[in-house]
Design a protein that fits this description.
Blueprint lengths: L1 H27 L2 H36 L11 E5 L5 E6 L1 H51 L1
Antiparallel strand pairs: 1-2
Helix pairs in contact: 1-2
């Protein structure tokens, strides 16, 4: 988790540095060179934003695997970016896909709670009864010694 935060923070800093560099170039560069510089900066920003999306998708996939949730390959859950020739190169989770994972994990947790709550209730009741009996025995021993 910490590695994810560190990586995203670093990438966001790089994106902001490129945007700032692009603003400075607009003030300094000649009209002939500014077009190429802006295109290059936009390409770098897009590459870094793609990397951010990939990190986020990997994090969500790990979260789903940890809780044994299968992500369906529906188009509404995935956003596909294509390469230069139009072939899909990367796929990222959409907000709907993230919501699906979140709801599926919540449902699994709720089912787990429903399944084990009667057992936990019985165990807690038995333990409280045992503690009450032990405290009663200690109280009787303490009163008998007085």
């Amino acid at each position: 988790m910490f590695d994810y935060w560190k990586a995203t923070r670093d990438i966001k800093k790089q994106i902001e540095a490129i945007r700032e560099r692009s603003r400075r170039r607009a003030d300094v560069e000649t009209a002939q060179m500014i077009g190429l510089a802006i295109v290059h900066d936009r390409f770098e920003i897009q590459r870094l934003e793609t990397h951010l999306k990939k990190l986020d998708t990997d994090r969500w996939r790990d979260y789903a695997l940890k809780h044994h949730v299968e992500i369906p390959p529906f188009e509404e859950y995935w956003d596909v970016e294509g390469g230069i020739d139009g072939t899909p190169t990367e796929s990222y989770l959409t907000e709907k896909g993230k919501r699906f994972i979140r709801e599926a994990v919540s449902e699994k947790r709720a089912l787990f709670g429903k399944r084990w709550s009667p057992t936990v209730t019985i165990v807690v009741s038995v333990l409280s009864f045992i503690i009450a009996v032990i405290s009663l025995i200690v109280a009787i021993i303490a009163l008998s010694k007085v």
